[in-house]
Design a protein that fits this description.
disordered C terminus, two-stranded antiparallel sheet, 5 helices, 88 residues
């Protein structure tokens, strides 16, 4: 189900959304080289919670942070975390 949902969302992406996603990928690679840690392209509002692949819903974040966040909305995740826990 997740693969079909992902494909459907990719078909809805505008050219600008695709451009932003490619830029986010480049930023992710650059940050990995610069900081020596893994980074992810993430959705502010998770796909599982109704988020889309629109440019406004894409962010580049540390992998650990993204894995800890799981499928929570970014703002809700930060609301329940202090800054120290988010950067460890």
């Amino acid at each position: 189900m997740k693969k079909s949902q992902k494909r459907a969302l990719q078909k809805l992406m505008s050219d600008f959304d695709k451009f932003v996603y490619k830029e986010a990928y480049g930023l992710r690679v650059m940050r990995e080289k610069q900081f020596g840690t893994s980074w992810h392209i993430d959705h502010t509002i998770p796909i599982s919670k109704g988020g889309t692949n629109e440019y406004i819903n894409i962010e580049v974040v540390p992998a650990k942070w993204n894995l800890d966040k799981s499928n929570r909305h970014t703002e809700k995740y930060f609301g329940g975390q202090n800054e120290k826990n988010c950067t460890e």
